[in-house]
Amino acid sequence: MPNLFSPYTLKDVTLRNRIAVSPMTMYRSKDGLVSDYHIMMYGSRAAGGFGLVFPEQLAISPEGRTSIGCGGIYNDEQIPGLKRVTSIIKEMGGIAGIQLGHTGRKSSEVKPWEGHVQLPPDHPNGWQVVGPSPIPYGGRYTYPVHELTRDDIKRIHRDYAQAARRAYEAGFEWMELHFAHGYLASSFFSPISNQRTDEYGGSVENRLRFLLEALDAVRETWPERLPLTMRLGCDDLNDAGIQVDHAIYGINRMKEHGLDLADISFGYNTDELTETPFAEMAFMVERASRIKRETGIPIACSWNLGLPSVADQVVREGLVDVVLLGRPALANPHWPLWAARELGGVEDTFGLLPQDWAFWLRNFRSHDSCIGWPLVETPAVQEVKAA
């Protein structure tokens, strides 16, 4: 029976455990380029024992960024910096994953701590946002949306292909496409945001077309031997939007186009929600486990899995295959090391660390409490729902 610390193999890639750093927008880039900050950020997480490490979503075009401070992979000048990221992740024992995306109508923003508002198209740091239909998201996203033409869509899919080519050249070994959180692909999939009357709108199959063509475009330049995965918004939490049944249909179709694993999240195509489960432990697992059963595809999942006992439980019970951690990975770069000690059963806890660190920690001769370990206080296993 696998557990949180079991290796996981997908295609020709083997993760040393089932723990991944989830992509998180950090607003630390200039002109889409990574910096020393990103080397520090992602190298430290790999050194801390994470098996799979994603930088933030990397935009396939400048207007696909959330803000001017967000990372991109839309020109070849960005490759050398990204090579530094993948190199340090690999040197520290992890696998470098990349999430490609386009933020669509939820872009042209300022940083959250500077107001988190959308900028108008004529602002020096803003641009014209795009979507499947000319429908603003609402809330803080108020500016007009350019409805993409067929030629625009073809250009965006070419951007996907070129971004995947650059990702391979930069040394990434795990590909994820961002089809969630109200971003461009998710907005095509949702009837809330997609009210087109051509072949890209209407039926579930038509609304899925943009996503399938993006997969096909990436497959042209991304090696078959490496995992091709995607994060899907499986539920808009609104009766008019994406439902889990739509996601199951979509993933089954994506499997026909070469999808290897589905990372399950929310649609976020509207702020008008019928429920708000965000404070519940492991609340996405019920949807994820149902999708896994009904599609037969490997599943990754995030959302409130930061307790080691809970993360381990959902893997042991076969509900998900890989656990993604966002804020827990920000709070504790050595979360896997802490989890191994909390859970017990890992023969060489320090083996998760680079060899030189592990050597000195294994040979610690002073009082155990002086090493910086917190007390082991394993919480009771939480009840995790499975549909």
Short description:
Helices cover 32% and strands 13% of the residues. It is α/β, with parallel strands linked by helices and 387 residues long. Helix 3 packs parallel to helix 5 (204-221).
Oligomer state equals single chain
CATH topology term? TIM Barrel
Main sheet record: 8 strands, parallel, barrel
- Give the integer mean of the pLDDT values: 94
Number of domains: 1
Sheet with most strands: strand arrangement: 3-4-6-9-10-11-12-13
Radius of gyration: 21 Å
The helix/strand series, from N terminus to C terminus, equals EEEHEEHEEEHEHHEHEHEHEHHH
How does CATH name the architecture?
A: Alpha-Beta Barrel
Question: Level of helix content?
Answer: 25-40%
SS strand fraction: 5-15%
CATH class descriptor: Alpha Beta
Number of beta-strand segments: 13
Shape by Cα distribution: globular
Full CATH superfamily name: Aldolase class I
Description of the molecule:
By secondary structure, the protein is of the alpha/beta class. The protein has a single domain, classed as TIM Barrel, CATH 3.20.20.70. The chain has 11 helices and 13 strands. The protein has helices spanning 36-47, 79-91, 150-170, 184-189, 204-221, 244-256, 285-295, 308-316, 327-331, 335-343, 355-362, and strands at 8-10, 13-15, 19-21, 52-53, 58-59, 95-101, 129-131, 145-147, 174-179, 228-233, 261-265, 299-301, 322-325. The strands form 3 sheets. The chain has an 8-stranded parallel beta barrel, surrounded by 6 helices. It has a two-stranded antiparallel ribbon with strand order 1-2. A two-stranded parallel sheet has the order 7-8. α1 (36-47) links the parallel β3 (19-21) and β4 (52-53). α1 packs parallel to α2, α5 packs parallel to α6 (244-256) and α6 (244-256) packs across α7. The longest helix has 21 residues, at 150-170. The mean pLDDT is 94.
